Amino acid sequence: MANKSTTENAFNLSEWLSGADQYKLHRETVLLLNPDDVADLAEVEEQIEKLEALRAEGESDDMETVASESLDTELAELYEQVEEITANAKTATFRTRVLNDAELKEINKDWKKDTGKDEVDTEDLTWWARVFQLTATLEGQSLAASQWLKLADTLGGQFVKCLSTYGEARAAEATLEVSPRFRRR
Questions:
Q1: Global pTM value
Q2: I need a surface site. Which of 108, 158, 162, 183 has the fewest CB within 10 A?
Q3: What is the dihedral of CA 75, 78, 79, 82, to 10 degrees?
Q4: Rounded Cα–Cα distance for residues 77 and 70 (Å)
Q5: What is the radius of gyration, based on Cα positions, of the chain?
Q6: Residue 11: beta bridge partners?
Q7: Any coiled-coil ranges, and where (predicted)?
Q8: Rounded CA gap, 97 and 100, in Å?
């Protein structure tokens, strides 16, 4: 038994050097699968945004009043509703990493060839389906590009969460910087 866990946690230098997926920076988000839960959550989040804006206005006016305490109470109740909705809803975990340069070039080349366009349109869902085919999983399962397109239709506006999660991974990767001691001169 101990031998199995040792081999699972063992560092594999050749995989790391080749950029194996488990050694890449990933980001995750939870997607709600029931449209009613999505609608309920959107409604509560909209109320939270409004109350947060009111609270920010009050803070900018240096108003410490009973009204700000009632805002805090309302916000706490709304955050509890968010937790309740997400705790009781059917969900799926979306996990993604960033494309490496070779993958990006290949996707762009294939996308241009298939669409007949000269410029890549990163707002086109077919492009994102190809990206997620290589970089993302849903509940630990890789999907084909056609399945990602169907998922985008099914999720509707929630698919934006997938796109923003990819953006978060990209931003996080961009902030990683190699120490100047190890840079090529």
A1: 0.69
A2: 183
A3: -160
A4: 11
A5: 22
A6: none
A7: 41-88
A8: 9
Does residue 72 or residue 142 have the better pLDDT? 142
Task: Tell me which amino acid residue 58 is.
Answer: G
- Tell me how far apart the 2 most distant CA atoms of the chain are, in Å: 63
CA 41 to chain centre: 17
Q: Using one digit for the tens of pLDDT, what is the confidence trace for 59-113?
A: 665 555 546 678 889 999 999 999 999 889 999 999 999 988 889 999 999 999 9
pLDDT in tens, 145-168: 999 999 999 888 889 999 999 999
Cα–Cα distance list, 162 to 3, 37, 116, 118 (Å): 38, 17, 26, 26
- Could you tell me the two tokens for 36? 């009613």
Amino acid 1 reads M
For CA atoms 108, 25, 155, 82, the dihedral sign is negative
